[in-house]
Amino acid sequence: MNIGIDFGTSYSAAATYVDGELTLVHFGDAKQFRTAVFFPEVVPDPSDFRLTPELDAQVESHVRDARAQQRQFATEARQQGRSYTERSDADLRRDALRTVRRQWMERRAAESPTATVESFQHALFGDDAVQAYLEYGDGNLIESPKSMLGYRLDPQVRKVIVHIATHILEHIRLAASRQLGGPVRTAVIGRPVHFRSSMGDRGSEQAVEIIREAAAVAGFDAVTFLEEPAAAAMHYHKRLATRQTALIVDIGGGTTDVAFAELGGDELPRIVRTWGLAKGGTDLDVNLSMHSFMPQLGNNVTRVPVHHYVEAASVHNLPKQREFRRQDYRFVDEPWQSRLRALQQPGATTRLNQTAERSKIALSSDAETPADLGFLEPGLGVSVARSDLDAAVEPFVERMQRLLAEVRAEWPGVPGSVFLTGGTSRSPVVKAAVRESFPDIPLVEGDPSLGVVSGLAVAAVEGSTEPASA
To answer: What is the CA radius of gyration of the chain?
Structure first.
């Protein structure tokens, strides 16, 4: 079975079509999960795994159980008049070997002297991962790993990033297999037009290579890629009864992507041109933190360089977080010294980022919202106003509008509509900026969270990851 996967910077989701109906994969009760994973303090190296007689016996036990379950599924399918394709022993053994290897790694992690919480036998994902990290402190929380895929990585860091992406993709594959009642082995994975990168186009190539490598280890036999605005276009295409041109604007957590497309009617969607900007919602969180919270830690007051505060606010960037925690603030004046050193404690930068994100969401509807910074100093807090958010968002909005101006100057014709999607499109300020860029064109709002994954599901079942282009 083929599924579409939106491996997002902030949130991830998956979907496919079953009997002609869009079916979203559920992760617990949710239709998406925060792209975050928590590991115990020490992550074992998979290359250290060796198949001992004891582990081989475990593999054979898993194979026997899988055969029995397969026979049960086959019997039920015959009784219900459905077809059912049994998997080969080689496939069953491959799955069993992966399971045993993962369990071996989990035991190694649990036995680590620094992995103090015995209940964490498995990696945790989404909000559960963030909560575990905040509650226990000891361990590794990786947020928004997609943001790191396009940067120059030394071999060991690249190995860790592949390992993290593997866990996330395997989490998606297993959830889909359970819900859909059969093995999921292939996927169409969304990708931005341009990944965040320090290496230009080579960074985007590296990012795709890492995802492809991780998907193979996660149990996918084959994956293909589709640019995210093209995926959103395929979703919008299903809604249009007649043919028209449309401009797709997808503003996600990490990137802003635009596509000019011919959509609707009985013809296939045709992507004419795409544009991309490697900035999105996570930049808004960092900007709001810098504008409203970092002055409480001495930004622009002390002699601490501004880049230290940027590093602290960039929770999605592991090297920056590591650099911030290495700094020595013993000689900074109070109260800034104590607050900065509190921010260096495990989980503190994550709490600050969550506070920024919650404030951003609250200010979408409220004129003012309180922000509690008591984890840095008892009683510390600030009140964040809509004007603060507007000021923090302004650099991103200006850059986005420059991109949209480039789009308008280069498109082949005036589109019939502008289709707006992506999680950051919820922001009234961002939405207003898009309207301002195209005041004479009808704006159609798609599902901010699920527009891209719905289009990836279309591509997965229709077998099209290369919409016709000019």
So the answer is: 24
Q: Residue 82 gets which letter from DSSP?
A: -
Residues 455 and 228: their CA atoms lie apart, in Å, by 9
Tokens of 180: 């859909």
| Listed residue (143, 140, 167, 164) closest to 36, CA to CA | 143
Our CA angle for 153, 155, 158, nearest 5°, is 55
For residue range 315-348, list pLDDT tens digits in order.
888 778 889 999 999 999 999 999 999 999 988 9
Query: CA 143 from chain center: how many Å?
Result: 8
Residue type, 244: Q
pLDDT digit string (tens) for 37-79? 887 655 555 667 788 888 899 989 988 888 887 787 678 768 8
| Angstrom distance (rounded) from CA 384 to CA 288 | 9
The β-bridge partners of 125 are 37
Residues 6+ apart with CB under 8 A from 378: none
Sheet containing strand 244-251, strands side by side: 443-445, 417-421, 244-251, 256-263, 270-277, 468-469
Question: Which residues, other chains included, contact 177 with Cβ-Cβ below 8 Å and sequence gap of 6+?
Answer: 183, 184
Cβ-proximal residues to 190 (8 Å cutoff; 6+ apart), any chain: 4, 5, 6, 7, 8, 225, 226, 227, 228, 231, 452, 453, 456
Backbone angles phi, psi at 418, to 5 degrees: -115, 120
pLDDT, position 107: 67
Q: Where does residue 265 fall: left (phi above 0), alpha (psi -120 to 50 degrees), or beta otherwise? A: left
Helices (H), 238-280: none
Name which of 303, 257, 182 is nearest 451 in CA terms: 257
